[in-house]
Amino acid sequence: MERTLAIIKPDAVEQRLIGRIVARIEEAGFTIRAMRLEHLTKKEAEGFYAVHRERPFFGTLTDFMSSGPCVLMALEAPDAIRKWRALMGATDPAKADAGTLRREFGSSIERNATHGSDALETAAFELGYFFRGMEIR
Ligand code: CMP
Asked: Which residues of 23-53 are buried (b: 16+ CB within 10 A; e: fewer)?
């Protein structure tokens, strides 16, 4: 079993897409081990995306991620990291395959509806950033 961090981003929460996205996660066979609605502060978004701090989009990305509530989830499944990234689709919704969440619900590379960890070490950091051990069953 593997765990990954999933985020339903502020654009999708604002469009009332939480239920549809959670349904797709469950239909795909993931077990949701923890879940919380959280309006990140700018500082919290900056800490989460610290690996991107030198990128030109860091300021707008962290403004957007702190612009409204997100849904934070710990997802569990065999091969969860790869499987969640496949369900989300490519970072840029315009390049994502038909049937993926970002293609269906994202509107730009920044407002791309969902986030997922990209590797085992990243998943460990990202899960630990938002959830204490006892919150993940
Ligand atoms: P995410 O999977 O959350 O990881 C980092 C985020 O940065 C990414 O999704 C995009 O929302 C955003 N991002 C990546 N590349 C760009 C870009 N070129 N311009 C704006 N935002 C970007």
From this structure: ebbeeeebeebbbeeeebeeebbbebbeeee
CA 20/CA 67 separation, integer angstroms: 21
**All domains in the chain, ordered by first residue:** 2-39+71-135 (3.30.70.141)
Structure tokens at 73: 């989830």
pLDDT at 133 over 90: no
Could you tell me if the CB of 73 is within 6 A of ligand 1?
Answer: no
Q: Helix or strand or coil: residue 25?
A: helix
Give, for ligand 1, the residue of 91, 117, 118 to mutate: max count of ligand atoms closer than 8 Å to Cβ. 91
Q: Indicate which residue's Cα is closest to atom 10 of ligand 1.
A: 110
Predicted TM-score (pTM) of this structure: 0.96
Cβ atoms of residues 88 and 102 within 8 Å? yes
Q: Which residues are catalytic?
A: 115
Q: What is the pLDDT of residue 9?
A: 98
Computed over every residue of the chain, the mean pLDDT equals 97
